[in-house]
């Protein structure tokens, strides 16, 4: 694994090192010593995956304290543009975002720290995204930012969103989720 920091503290791109032979492929997604060397939590409390049609946007999601979490995201099948927004009011990158192409060919992952909202656009039918989180889902601590309210221009003409994701409040510098 190779770890690449981004301009947003707490957001790391992980370059997995896939192995392939005549049988197929193999990818190690979590390695305790590597994560520890980078100062990243490697023990996850919950793991799940989504299957998305082309043009689906999921996000922008986060959990607030005391159930905020770090999240590891990678694509098992298909392709996404993963977008992370810094919503930590005291961070110098507050309001900044990073967009990264994750797919089953480049085998990149994102390690998304606490205080960062996360969402993605599915670029292919039946795209499978796997998530690992350091805390369990806690409904009372869930939050979101309206997908098109923080300056990122999603490359999709007719996005498909859940009613929940359409109903999030627009991003505003006046909001305080993480201080």
In words, what does this structure look like?
- The chain is mostly beta strands and 179 residues long.
- It has one domain: Jelly Rolls (Sandwich).
- Helices cover 6% and strands 41% of the residues.
- It has a 6-stranded antiparallel beta sheet with strand order 1-2-10-7-12-5, with no helix packed on it. A 5-stranded antiparallel beta sheet has the order 9-8-11-6-13, with no helix packed on it.
- A hairpin with a 2-residue loop joins β3 and β4.
- It is globular, with a radius of gyration of 16 Å.
- 30% of the residues are buried.
The gist of it:
This protein is mainly beta and 179 residues long. It is built from 2 helices and 13 strands.
Q: Please state the structural category.
A: mainly beta
Average pLDDT level: 95
The N- to C-terminal Cα distance equals 32 Å
Domains, number: 1
SS summary, helix count: 2
| CATH topology annotation | Jelly Rolls
Are there runs of 5+ residues with pLDDT below 50, and where?
Answer: none
CATH superfamily membership, which one? Jelly Rolls
H-E order: EEEEHEEEEEEEEEH
Total strand count, please?
Answer: 13
The CATH architecture can be given as Sandwich
Shape: globular
Strand content: 35-45%
Q: What's the alpha carbon Rg, rounded to whole Å?
A: 16 Å
**How is the quaternary structure best described?**
single chain
Order of strands, widest sheet: 1-2-10-7-12-5
CATH top level assignment: Mainly Beta
> Quick one: biggest sheet?
6 strands, antiparallel
Helical fraction equals under 10%
């Amino acid at each position: 694994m190779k770890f690449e920091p981004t301009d947003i503290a707490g957001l790391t791109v992980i370059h997995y090192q896939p192995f392939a032979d005549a049988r197929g492929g193999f990818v190690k997604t979590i390695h305790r010593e590597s994560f520890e060397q980078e100062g990243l939590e490697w023990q996850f409390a919950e793991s799940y995956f989504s299957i998305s049609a082309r043009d689906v946007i999921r996000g922008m999601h986060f959990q607030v304290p005391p159930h905020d979490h770090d999240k590891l995201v990678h694509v098992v099948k298909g392709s996404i543009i993963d977008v992370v927004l810094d919503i930590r009011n005291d961070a110098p990158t507050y309001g900044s975002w990073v967009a990264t192409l994750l797919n089953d060919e480049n085998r990149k992952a994102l390690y998304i720290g606490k205080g960062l909202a996360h969402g993605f656009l599915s670029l292919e039918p039946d795209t499978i995204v796997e998530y690992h989180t350091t805390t369990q889902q806690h409904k009372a601590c869930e939050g979101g930012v309206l997908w098109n309210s923080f300056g990122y221009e999603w490359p999709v003409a007719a996005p498909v969103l859940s009613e929940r994701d359409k109903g999030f409040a627009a991003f505003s510098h006046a909001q305080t989720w993480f201080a």
